[in-house]
């Protein structure tokens, strides 16, 4: 079952059960560095193309001892039979430095997860520091195609040498690898100097259209033994709040005021959660006058991790705002 009789320790992977999906549940031809389910990023260099989505396929509670509802699915839509020397393909979560410092700074840690893949053979999970100048490759085997399997990997204590961030930047990158060229490969089982993501044993999981790679129940805990899966937070609500530190998608936010035409209209829009850093954001919608004539997007007077202040010059006596925000403070 992949569970042991030991007191659970906190999971430092956020959204490890793949339930939070603020951006949506399906991402066709996803671009490299784009996010799909909350906190999960897709990476590639090569001609392979995936649809990444939230799948309802997950290990049963009798298998796992946990009621998983979702998995993260990467399905090949354009295959790449031959992997170039610099090509790579992976799903990644970056752990914030504050959290990595708590659980695994220069200490051994264990990652456990459930995986289901079409292609059998050796796969790799890679761990990199913030500067991508120290890498650790851990191998595991997919033994049966299209079957949920539980894996645990213990990682040696990270070195003090190299570029590490123990504050609000990238503390540790965790990569689930689907393909890697020879220039991206190194020896597994120990920390290496350089930027690597796999060993030479890594299979090519993107060589055929419709190949799947699914993961769920991703758990990273301190120490040399896997702990039973738990969320980063204590509930799904708390897990969403943790996700909101990095990304927030609001519904339509409305505001109105009465001003003299030509004067500045200002309003404050607080975020739902304090952000990791001062975010960037995309405004969806327009500011309108009472006559229904669109004006321009607001000029941003102040942006902080708490919220932002929008300024606009009114073009009529009454002005109201009808706007939605995509707020990004991802690592």
The N- to C-terminal Cα distance equals: 33 Å
Q: What is the count of helical runs?
A: 3
Largest beta sheet: strand ordering: 1-3-4-12-6-9
Runs in which pLDDT lies below 50 for 5 or more consecutive residues are: 1-8
Structural shape: globular
What does this structure look like?
It contains 3 helices and 19 strands. A 6-stranded antiparallel sheet has the order 1-3-4-12-6-9, with no helix packed on it. The protein has a 6-stranded antiparallel sheet with strand order 2-5-10-7-8-11. Strands 13, 14, 16 and 19 form a 4-stranded antiparallel sheet that branches. The longest helix has 9 residues. It starts with 25 loop residues before the first strand and ends with a strand. The N terminus is likely disordered.
Looking at this protein, list some descriptive labels.
six-stranded antiparallel sheet; 331 residues; single chain; disordered N terminus; mainly beta
Secondary structure topology:
Elements: E1 26-27, E2 41-45, E3 49-55, H1 61-64, E4 71-78, E5 88-96, H2 97-103, E6 109-117, E7 121-128, E8 134-142, E9 149-155, E10 170-180, E11 191-193, E12 212-222, H3 236-244, E13 247-249, E14 253-258, E15 264-270, E16 280-289, E17 299-303, E18 307-313, E19 318-328
Antiparallel strand pairs: 1-3, 2-5, 3-4, 4-12, 5-10, 6-9, 6-12, 7-8, 7-10, 8-11, 13-19, 14-19, 15-18, 16-19, 17-18
